Amino acid sequence: MRIARVTVGLGCAVVIGLAALGFGTDTEAQTPPSVKEAPKPVDFKGKTVVIIVGSSPGGGWDTEARSTALTLPKILPGNPRVVVQNVPGGDGDRALRRMGEPQTPRDGTVIMPVHGRFFLDAILGKPHPYYDPDKQFVAALRSRQTGHLLWVWREIATSWDQIMAMPCCLTLAAGARFGGEAAESGPHLAAMLGAPIKMIWSYAPGSKDRAAAFARRETKLHAGWTIARHFPELIRRREIVPVLWWGELAPRDFEEWAELLKAGGVTENPPNLFDALKVTNNMRVAFTVATEAVAIHRGSYIVPPGTPVPIREFWEKILAEVPKDPEWKKRLFAAGISPTDIGYTPREKVLAMRSAVVGLGPEEKKIFLALISGEESGTGKK
């Protein structure tokens, strides 16, 4: 049956599981009030606002920060100058320590997009000395309307049932073990629960490289949309087929790829990961928190430790306005950032992830830790 343009499968898991634990799912409904309603007016006239980026110029963080730096003068009171300062080193640690230095201003003139691993460490009880999400986290400029597909070569299989009937194992190239990447956590969870999938971690440095390895037939499976972006001819020629999907939106709900899927003969959505594996609601929550915690925090911003609460609340309202700038979005699209990654996620939704983990049972926590570390949990594995 053709899937209508509604949120189903994992989307339902997000609504059912996370909403019950305090997660919001409607970012528009949760968008803070207008900037004009800030508790204490802040004026940056004659000042310079600095966005500290914990990586070298040219990467994803840097690209997003520079686009934001071009939009902020239109929104901030006083029309200040906004600059990006790159402080690479330690996968974001050096920049975070710069935020904690006594000489770093706490008047709202310094903000920073923070690496998702620091938020995960905080969830796991390993806080950074200069990062307290409860006091510093502002908001995320990523909406993560995810929707991923598991692809297989047509000569191997054309359905998920056929894959499940195979002996172990079909190979899938994955990135670094740590991080809960949504595009690879789906098959990782399936492998942990008994699917004949072998994850090859750190197979290649980037998602494009892993797609290329699949296109060369070095691996049997591919997860995510990278194959559609870089090797669309494989879909058009119907050499590969999707056999599973996961995420907040069904694959054919993505206008960006709908025509390509249609050209590839994909007229119905394949089974949803959670329906196919018949997992518990708590396991859905564990999966969603593990994948979204890192994904959302790629576009998250914090203020220095010790910044007054009214200043942090002011920035929360400011960042809610950034994605409304069409030029901000155009710049990110031109840089290759997917439109499904761009948006606004409020502070409350992200911070609710930590409390959600506390409510998980032992098996679900094991799944959660395995998903964010890349290790095997042993739960239901053949």
Describe the structure in your own words.
With 382 residues, the chain is α/β, with parallel strands linked by helices. The protein folds into two domains: 42-142 and 298-345, D-Maltodextrin-Binding Protein, domain 2, CATH 3.40.190.150; 147-289 and 362-373, Periplasmic binding protein-like II (D-Maltodextrin-Binding Protein, domain 2, 3-Layer(aba) Sandwich). It is built from 18 helices and ten strands. The protein has helices at 10-20, 27-30, 60-75, 93-100, 116-123, 133-136, 160-164, 182-192, 207-215, 226-230, 232-236, 255-263, 273-277, 281-297, 309-321, 326-334, 347-358, 362-373; strands at 48-53, 81-86, 110-113, 137-140, 147-153, 170-173, 197-200, 221-223, 240-247, 300-302. A five-stranded mixed β-sheet has the order 2-1-3-10-4, sandwiched between helices. A three-stranded antiparallel β-sheet has the order 8-5-9. A two-stranded parallel ribbon has the order 6-7. Strand 6, helix 8 and strand 7 form a beta-alpha-beta unit. The radius of gyration is 21 Å and the shape is globular. The two termini are 31 Å apart. Mean pLDDT is 81; it is low at 1-39.
